[in-house]
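Hi, here's the filled form for the chain we discussed.

Project: internal
Contact: R.S.
Residues: 462
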Amino acid sequence: MRKLWGGAFAEDSDGLVNRFGQSIHTDLNFWQEDLIGSVAHARMLGAKGIISAEESETLIRGLESIHEDGPESLPMDVEDIHTAIEVRLGEKVGEVAGKLHTARSRNDQVATDTRLYLHNQLIELFDLIKKLQALLLTLGDKHKADLMPGWTHQQRAQPITLGFHLMAHFWALQRHGWRAERLSELANYCPLGSAALAGTSFPIDREMTSHELGFNGPIPNALDATSDRSYILDALGLCANLMIDLSRISQELVLWSGREFGFVSLSDAVTTGSSIMPQKRNPDMAELIRGRSGRVIANWVTLATTMKALPLGYNRDTQDDKPPLFDSLTKVKDSIKLVHLMLESATWRLDRMRDSIRGDFSTATDLADFLASTGMPFRRAHEVVGQIVRGCDERKITLEALDKETLHAIAADVPETALSVLSPEGSVQRRESLGAPGPNAMEKQLSHAQWLHKCEGFPKIA
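And the returned structure, exactly as it came back:
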């Protein structure tokens, strides 16, 4: 296996050592970032007279030629992406390729590559989050008056609307977008020029390379620059948080698409069949998102466990920081696309949702609120309504089926005007506090969300 080192070694590494330490196959994820960083470094070396201007131009042309050839042109019998590119560069421009590594180390090189890669991935993630939010806004507005049950403890709680429910996911995505922007700012500092850990004696210009690569500036301490992996942990945490919410949406689609609920039908494009049961329509994509969220959460734990006892300075353990990052970002992006596809192509059974509220006692809170509005202490109202619910259960009737005679038989002190607040439609209509599902409150919420969505980036909710 070809390497960038070995002069002090009398014999080659064992084959198992070579295989165990090789990272080229996963490193290919950021082959372009390695080339971009190398071009900036070569240009700076020429500008500072560390190598000649002609040598600098030769290196840049060679690197650009490698980019045109694509990753399939790179050798695979090497340790890592840095070796692959330098070997290929030597094939193109000759011995001058060996000057590219002047005043840098693979330690600052890989840290630069990873930050560039993360920056580019976050731009893709921003776009995907915005697109899913746009769909949720459309569905939230379309279904803002379509009744459905609301749950707490997975028990029927109060009537809400489908639009109100879907908009809750919009706000979760807004927070994730905001976190992603903060991560993009936090990670956007340049390690290049830090070399192995203590900088270099060459008169380099770290400001120049940082500016050319689009960073906010160089990392002030070379040891910190080559040691830090907190930005990858932050990225893995962001991915885990996103997958948790995507998993929650998926779980709802799994439940709601079953016959027990029958609230939604997922399209053929996002479901699968059974090899033995012809009638089956399985929500496999939603289940896989739900399952793979565990893998993404585990990726954060994997790197946190790796980093927790490492002393400062590059340690080979951190070679394993990138596969979890590649894996998590891929899973999150695919999962957002799949959730978008599932929601976009779903057929909502609005009649089934509306009818399922009848008889579930979910307007009991409305009755307690009515009694409290007459001057009764809410705790007393809560107790009285509890007695009414028990009385209905004993008579095997619903709250909506109460008439004034039955009501007075159960709770003689409750006025018959209380019967007017027991419909699910009225329950939703009356809930007009900020953030509630009532018509005016929903219009305000949708307007707020639409304004945020039109903004560049992801402003804070408030």
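Let me know if anything looks off before we file it.
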